[in-house]
Amino acid sequence: MSSTPPARVAITKTALGGIAEYAIAPAISVFDAPPQLDDAEATAFVLTFQASHLALFRRGRLQAGETLVVHSAASGLGTAGIQLGKAAGARVIAVAGGPEKGSLCASLGADLVIDHLTEDFVESVLAATDDAGAEVVYDLTGGDFAERSWRCTARGGRYLAVGFADDNENGMTGRPLRMACLGNIDIVAVMLGWADSVDPGMRRFGFNPFGRDVADEVHADLLRMVANEMIRPYVGRRVTMEEAGRALDDHEERRSLGRTVVEIVP
After folding, report:
1. What would the pLDDT profile of 209-251 be if each residue is shown by its tens digit?
2. How do 30-32 and 9-11 pair as beta strands?
3. Which residues, listed in sequence order, are joined to residue 260 by a DSSP beta bridge?
4. Which of 47, 89, 172, 200 could hold 64 in an S-S bridge, CB 3.0 to 4.6 Å?
């Protein structure tokens, strides 16, 4: 019998049955877990950081010295976005709701924190950039935040449509683009979902993901940053299977910080 220990892996959202003792995942969505992270951190790492890396760098072309706005900044993807932005040398403006979320964003390195419950983030971003706006807006919220974000995106800047936490129709209703034309901005669509081949029906629906070659480039860069202590997933809560339902309610009501991990106790 081989004495080689089993590989520790983490999987992306293409896995089925995440809140379970066992899950089925296509090989294309399985990646080596960083050895520097414990099991809960590794679980919180892959989806959040792969999605944020793909959005900010490959799609958003974020450069050192640029200003990055992160919406839903205290979420799992938001906390990843803050850290990746700082690692890239960007000035990071975090938009979150309430003082507790704001404090978390500041602790992760955000240069400016805007509480959207008490401030107009459009005015705050414009004031912080001398009315130029941000070169990149990482929008994990959608809904009313979308068109407002276009007003504080810099000319030639990139608005990244990634999440729809504030959209009751999950972003599928469409959004008039006339207002985006006024600012001469790029609207950039982002989806994390690796596939080397696509069913023709899904392709005609619009599904057009990147392949494993891009996934491996993204993951290799993330492993480098973890090893160099530039980034680390923020696990806001570790819960048992019995507590998972209440934790999901908290996520739906936007009461969570970072990533919640369900731990299976032997």
Report:
1. 999 999 999 999 999 999 999 999 999 999 998 998 999 898 8
2. antiparallel
3. 237
4. 89
